[in-house]
Amino acid sequence: DVKVTQSSRYLVKRTGEKVFLECVQDMDHENMFWYRQDPGLGLRLIYFSYDVKMKEKGDIPEGYSVSREKKERFSLILESASTNQTSMYLCASSPGRRGFRNTEAFFGQGTRLTVV
Amino acid sequence: AQSVSQHNHHVILSEAASLELGCNYSYGGTVNLFWYVQYPGQHLQLLLKYFSGDPLVKGIKGFEAEFIKSKFSFNLRKPSVQWSDTAEYFCAVNVNSGGYQKVTFGTGTKLQVIP
Fold first, then answer.
1. Once rounded to an integer, what is the mean pLDDT over residues A106-116?
2. What is residue A104's predicted lDDT score, i.e. its pLDDT?
3. Of A44, B83, B91, B95, which shows the fewest CB atoms inside 10 Å?
C-alpha cells in the first residue's frame, strides 16, 4: 500500500512563529502536493513539486514556501504563521513524470494546525 | 484555470434512499476525474476514477459515476445508501496544465445518512 505520512496530526503554534509541516511518501512518487482544507472551500492547492528541488505555486501560495531536497520528502513552511492559516493541511503524492496523465493522488492523514 | 463545482453542500438522506451528487467542471481539454471520500476522522480515500473508455465507472462500496462530456459533468450515484456512507465527498479534476499535473477539488458535499 502507498503510504503518505505527515509528521503531526495536531499542531498549535503562536502568531509569527516559523512552522514546518513534514510529509514523507514511501512509493517513489515523482509528484507531491500540499493542500489546505477549510469548511465550505474544499481542498485548495498551495504548492506542488514534480521532482527533487522543483516546486510550482498552486492556487494559494501566499504566506507559504516549500522544500523538496529528497524525492520522498516534501515540506511546507509557514514563514510567519498567522491566525488565518489555521486549517487542516493535507499532503499528497502521485506517480508519473511531469505531464504524465492517468494517475491518482494518495493522501496523508492531515495535520490540523491552529495558530493562536 | 479549471474549476470544479459541487452544487450540494449538505445532503441528508434516510437509509436505503438513492443518492446522486452533482459535479461539474470547467476545462475544455482532456481530463481525469475522481471522487474522493473522507469519513469522519479519517484521511481522504479514492472512491472511483475515470481516465478514458466506458463513461460509467464503478467504484468501491457500490458507488458509481457517469462522465457526460457534453455536460462537463461527473455525477456520483448510489442506489441505496447506508448509515456508514455518512462522510464528506469531493469531486476532483486532474488536468495537464503547462506540462504539469494539477488536481483541482470541488468544495465538497457532506452526506448525512439517518438510520
1. 95
2. 82
3. B83
Q: Say what the alpha-carbon torsion angle B103, A71, A17, B105 is, to the nearest 10 degrees.
A: 10
Residue B59 contacts A, CB cutoff 8 Å: no
User: Is the CB of A99 less than 8 angstroms away from the CB of B102?
Assistant: no
CA distances from A65 to A19, A69, A85, A94 (A): 10, 13, 13, 20
C-beta atoms of B101 and A41 within 8 A: no
Measured CA to CA, the distance from residue A49 to residue A93 in angstroms comes to 9
Matching residue, cell 503524492: A93
The stretch B23-43 carries a mean pLDDT of 90
**In the structure, what pLDDT confidence band is assigned to residue A97 with cuts at 50, 70 and 90?**
low
**CB burial readout A30-48, b (16+ within 10 A) else e:** bbbbbbbbeeeebbbbbbb
pLDDT band at B2 (very low <50, low <70, confident <90, very high): confident
Shortest CA distance to B6 belongs to which of A43, A91, A48, A106?
A43
pLDDT at B105: 92
Closest by Cα among B28, B27, B45 to B36: B45
Cα–chain-centroid distance for residue B106?
Answer: 9
**Segment A91-110 mean pLDDT:** 79
Name A78's Cβ contacts closer than 8 Å, sequence gap at least 6. A13, A17, A18, A19, A21, A63, A64, A85, A113
